[in-house]
Amino acid sequence: MNGLRRLSITARITIGSLLIATLFGLVAVAVVRIGVATILHNATVTLLMNDIAPYVTELETNPAGKLDAPVGGQEIAVVAPDGQVVQSTLPRRLEARIQHLETFGTEAASVSAGGQQYIVLKHNVETSAGTYVVIAARNTETTDLILDRLTVAMLVGAGIAIVVFGAASWLLARAALRPVSRMREEAEAIADVSSTGLLAVGPANDELAALATTLNDLLRRLRASADREKQMVSDASHELRTPLAVLRGQLELAELDAGDADALLADIRDSHSTAVRLGQLAANLLELSRIDAGATQGQADWRELTSELAEAIDRARAVSGDDADLSIDFDYRPRSRDGGGATVALSRTEFGRVVDNLLSNAITALEGSGEIGVELVAVAGRVTLTVQDSGPGMPEDFIPIALTRFTRAEGPRSALAGGGLGLAIVAALVRSAGGSIVLANASAGGLLATVVLPATTTEGAPA
Fold first, then answer.
1. How far apart are CA 428 and CA 292, in angstroms?
2. What are the E-state strand segments in 179-336?
3. Are residues 340 and 419 in the same domain?
4. pLDDT of 71 above 50
5. Which residue, 46, 267, 381, 420, has fewest beta-carbon neighbours within 10 Å?
6. What is the pLDDT of residue 437?
C-alpha cells in the first residue's frame, strides 16, 4: 500500500483501470464460456434426440420388424424388453455398461468411459411387445476442443484489450492531469507574494476550475496578509520614530536635571505621557491589524447595544469630568421602531470601541466646553448611531480622508493620543460588519458622524 502511495496519480489510475479491466475481462470470458458450453450441450442433446427419433417411430409401428442400421456415425443401442441388445453401435467401453445406462432417467447425462467423456440420452418406447429402451451417445471431445480453443482465443483477445485499455487509461490520465501540471507551473511562477498574477481559470465549470478559483482566493488572502504585515511594519516604524525620539530626549533631559527635583519630576511626567502615547499607538496598530485580518466575528443584540452605549457615555463623562472647567452635555436617545430584536455583526466590546473613539474625537474637538448628542435607532433592518458635537467641525477638504489611518486635521481635532488611528479603527470595525460611516459638518456647526449597521432579527430575518 505504501508503495502505491509513492506512485504518481497517473500510474495509480492506470493500475486501478488495469485491475478493473482484468476483473471484468475474466468475468466476461467465464460468462461467455459458460454460455457457449450450454449452447453446445443443448445442441448435442438435440442431435441425440434426432438420432433416437427414427427408432422410436419404427418400434412403435413395427416392434417385431428389423431395425435399420445407424448411419452417419450414430452411436445407438436398442434393448429389447427381455434385456437383449438387438442393435448397437456404441463404443465397446459404453456397450459394456448398457445395463447401467438403462437405469438413467430421461434427461441427458454425462458419462466417462475409457478416458473419454460422453453425453448419453435414454428413451423408453412402449410397444405391444413390451418396453424397448433406445440409448444414444455422443463423444464430447469435439465440443470440448471447440470450447477450449474459443476460451484461449477469448483470453488472448481479453489480454490484448486490457493492454489497449491500460494504454488508453495512461494517455487519458495524462491528458486529464495536464491542466494540473500547468497549474503547478503557474503556481511556481507566481509563488512570490510580491507577484500580482493569478492562476488561469478555464472556461469549463469543472473541478479544475473550482480548484483554480479556490487557490486564487488563497493567494489573494496570503497577499493581503503579507500586505497588512508590511503596512503594519511601515506604519509602526514611521509613527513610532517621532515618539521614541521625543522619549529619548525627555530621558536625556531628565538625566541633566538630576539635581533639580522639580524639573526632574516634570521630565518624568512628560516621559510617562509619551510612553502612554506610545502604548496607545501600538495598541491601535494591533487593533487595526486584527480587524484587517477579519477577526471580528461577534454579534450584539439591541439590549447589549443600548447597555454598551450607556456605559460608553459614562466612560466619556468620567474622562471629561477630570477637568473642572470642562462642561459637556450628552444627549442619549436610544429608540427602536419594530427593531427590538435587532442584532448586528459586532460584538458588544467592538461596538463600545466605535462609540468610545467617536466620543473621544468629539471631546477633543470641544476643548473644554460644548455639547455632544448621541442617538441610537433601530429601524427598517438597520441600526443607526449618530454622534454630533458643537465643536468647530472639520475642514471640508479633510473630511474625504478623515477615515484614513495616520491622518490628522489641523486644529483641535489633531490633538488625539491615538496617532490618527481612532477614526480609522471606527471605519474598519464598521466595514467589517457590513456597515458604513459618514462624516459631515452639521449646518448648525460641529461634526456629525453617522454609523449605519445592517441588522437582523434574532430569527435571522431582516429587522
1. 7
2. 300-301, 327-336
3. yes
4. yes
5. 46
6. 93
183: Cβ contacts below 8 Å, ≥ 6 apart = 199, 200, 208, 211, 212, 215
If you search the block for the grid coordinates 427602536, which residue do you land on? 336
- 345 neighbors 299 (Cβ within 8 angstroms): yes
Residue 223 lies in a domain: yes
Is 305 found in the same domain as 450? yes
CA–CA–CA angle 388, 389, 394 (5° rounding):
95
Same domain membership, residue 312 and residue 275: no
Predicted TM-score (pTM) of the model is 0.49
Q: Which amino acid is at 119?
A: I
Q: Specify whether the CB–CB gap between 197 and 189 falls below 8 A.
A: yes
Please indicate, yes or no, if residue 248 is contained in any of the structural domains.
yes
Contact assessment for residue 387 and residue 251, using Cβ atoms and an 8 Å cutoff: no
Terminal CA-CA length for the chain: 57
Let me know if residue 162 belongs to a domain. Answer: no
- Residue 205: all three cell numbers together: 465549470
Span 293-315, pLDDT tens digits: 665 567 888 889 888 988 888 88
Can you tell me the distance from the alpha carbon of 119 to that of 142, in angstroms, rounded to the nearest whole number?
Answer: 12
Residue 99 belongs to some domain of the structure: yes
Rounded distance between C-alpha atoms, residue 303 and residue 438, angstroms: 25
Of the three residues 270, 295, 320, the one that is the final residue of a domain is 295
Do the beta carbons of residue 411 and residue 398 sit within 8 Å?
no
Look up the CATH number of the domain holding residue 106.
Answer: 3.30.450
CA distances from 24 to 18, 31, 35, 162, 289 (A): 10, 10, 16, 10, 60
Grid cell listed for 59: 418400434
Distances (CA, A) of 186 to 177, 193, 211, 224, 439: 14, 14, 13, 20, 45
- Print the domain residue range for 310: 297-454
